[in-house]
Design a protein that fits this description.
The chain is mainly alpha-helical. The protein contains 7 helices and 7 strands, in the order αααααααβββββββ. The strands form 3 sheets. The chain has a 3-stranded antiparallel β-sheet, with no helix packed on it. Strands 1-2 form a two-stranded antiparallel sheet. Strands 3-4 form a two-stranded antiparallel ribbon. A hairpin with an 8-residue loop joins strand 1 and strand 2. Residues 201-248 have low confidence and may be disordered.
Length: 268
């Protein structure tokens, strides 16, 4: 008898420990549902359910262990019933049961569900037994089909939302090209000062305050001299020098050809 009592005591301590862990998990989960419902995520809910399921499985293993005595063979009989407040019961029940009277004993020492719950359970069992195997298989197939359709719709909505987010976040311009274009337009960065092919006009310096006209190689024009068909007279500084054919003499006339400095450097 002493051995059985010791074994029963150890089993009850293990059960009390497992039930306390399960109670703490339930309290934490209920607190989340009541106070953190606005930021509660589905993975967090699944984690809480997984924790509760694991603790229930552990509790069942303790109950089914070979060293655990059959608790159904143990009978609990209340020895004292009092309508007065009991501090010890208050401490053990964490303030939920202030008194241990004839009103609370049937509820706390009950070994079966409520009569209404028991009646509903019997009704469900009867309805389940009445359904044939073929009908049950058809209902299972219909339920699986509905679940698959629902999963497809959820997956489609997730893909559409992800593609929509990618379209919104996709960049439609190149920052480097934009900065290079702005620098070229505003400051002339990266632009070349070479004259395009075919241009014969003067190029004005880009430096501020510079009025010097840079003449290209085409400023030297060949002019036929009378009496000397194979000789050319150059234009020097926009002034065409004419000679009379006698060497060593000053020219009798000077023909000036002054080009306007305001001419656009790139002639079209």
């Amino acid at each position: 008898m002493q051995r059985e009592e010791k074994q029963l005591e150890l089993s009850l301590e293990a059960l009390i420990s497992q039930v306390a862990d399960l109670k703490n998990s339930l309290v934490s989960f209920i607190y989340k549902l009541e106070n953190e419902y606005d930021r509660l995520t589905w993975p967090s809910v699944l984690d809480s359910f997984a924790l509760l399921s694991g603790q229930l499985n552990t509790l069942n293993k303790v109950l089914k262990h070979e060293k655990t005595p059959l608790l159904r063979n143990q009978v609990i009989i209340p020895l004292v019933l009092s309508p007065d407040r009991d501090e010890e019961i208050m401490r053990q029940t964490e303030g939920r049961v202030p008194v241990f009277s004839h009103e609370v004993v049937p509820d706390h020492l009950r070994t079966k569900p409520d009569p209404e719950v028991e009646e509903q359970e019997k009704q469900l069992s009867t309805d389940a037994a009445r359904i044939g195997a073929d009908v049950a298989q058809k209902q299972i197939q219909n339920l699986n089909k509905m679940c698959l359709n629902l999963l497809e719709k959820i997956s489609k909505e997730e893909r559409e939302s992800e593609s929509g987010g990618l379209r919104q976040n996709k960049q439609t311009y190149n920052s480097a090209d934009t900065n290079a274009l702005v620098a070229a337009v505003a400051f002339g960065k990266g632009l070349s000062n070479r004259r395009p092919p075919g241009g014969t006009g003067p190029v004005q310096s880009s430096q501020p305050g510079a009025n010097t006209i840079i003449t290209g190689t085409s400023a030297m024009q060949q002019v036929q001299m009378p009496g000397a068909p194979n000789q050319a007279q150059p234009m020097l500084g926009g002034v065409q020098m004419t000679q009379t054919g006698q060497p060593g003499k000053m020219p009798s006339s000077i023909k000036t050809n002054i080009k306007s400095a305001s001419m656009h450097p790139y002639q079209r």
